[in-house]
Amino acid sequence: MTVNSLSLPVDNVGASSAALSSLVPNHRDMGNTQISVGVGQYRGQTAVAAGMYHYVGNRVLLNAGFSVSGDERSGRMGMTIGFGSRGPGR
């Protein structure tokens, strides 16, 4: 594989990264589960992404996302744990 032949896969991965980064939970929503969708573009390649966020209690947020651009597929999963005291109004 030559360096020039890597251009399209790299561009697809760039588009997938942009699409995945657009998946953001809505902290104003009071529900425990949310679905997010996004689109990203990089050097002429476009990707779509979908993700889900689920709050487990008040301190744990689970998340997962999936992206498609051309023949390239990307996925991610994560967990956020909050700790410490909550500020006013929270």
Which structural class do you get from the secondary structure elements? Answer: alpha+beta
Order of helices and strands: HEEEE
Which oligomeric form is depicted?
A: single chain
Which residues form runs of ≥5 with pLDDT under 50?
A: none
Task: Describe the strand arrangement of the main beta sheet, using strand numbers.
Answer: 1-2-3-4
**CATH architecture assignment name:** 2-Layer Sandwich
Strand content: over 45%
CATH homologous superfamily grouping: GSPII I/J protein-like
Q: Supply the number of structural domains.
A: 1
Q: How far apart lie the N and C ends?
A: 54 Å
Helix tally?
A: 1
The largest sheet, given as strand count, sense and whether it forms a barrel, is:
4 strands, antiparallel
Shape: elongated
Q: In the CATH hierarchy, what is the class?
A: Alpha Beta
Mean pLDDT: 89
| Count of individual beta strands | 4
CATH level 3 topology: Pantoate--beta-alanine Ligase, Chain: A,domain 2
- State Rg: 17 Å
